[in-house]
Write a structure and sequence with these properties.
Layout lengths: L3 E11 L4 E12 L2 E6 L4 E5 L2 H21 L13 H20 L6 H7 L8
Antiparallel strand pairs: 1-2, 2-3, 3-4
């Protein structure tokens, strides 16, 4: 059984608003290789270590964004989300971690809750 890790990674700054742009990354080990999978772009990289897989993924994302920008293909050709099963694995893992974190404590301050929350601001 594969062990998954999910993380939100800030890859760059939104130059207009100076906020990090958050991408979702699913990480796991498969056949002796560490895998890093960016779910918004459905880009996958591998490496001999988790750090190397993350660096390779960051290079892939950078190349994808640069190519799309230079060819005038933004934004329609850039975002191709990963299949739903990978998103499901990611969210199940995040929920499991949240349950474990909360169950270890007798109380949690609102400040800690705010620090642990991963939120995105959307205009509706």
């Amino acid at each position: 059984m594969k062990k998954y890790a999910g993380r939100a990674i800030a890859i760059c700054k939104d130059t207009q608003h100076e906020r990090p742009i958050i991408l979702t990354c699913l990480e796991y080990k498969d056949a002796g290789h560490f895998i890093a999978h960016c779910l918004e772009f459905d880009l996958v990289a591998q490496g001999g270590s988790l750090g190397e897989a993350r660096e390779n993924l960051a290079d892939l994302i950078s190349s994808q964004v640069t190519f799309a920008s230079e060819k005038g293909l933004l934004p329609k050709s850039l975002f191709h989300p990963a299949p739903a099963r990978y998103w499901q694995i990611y969210f199940e893992h995040r929920a499991k971690l949240a349950r474990q974190y909360i169950l270890k404590r007798k109380s949690i301050s609102p400040r800690v809750i705010l620090d642990k929350m991963s939120c995105a601001y959307a205009h509706v």
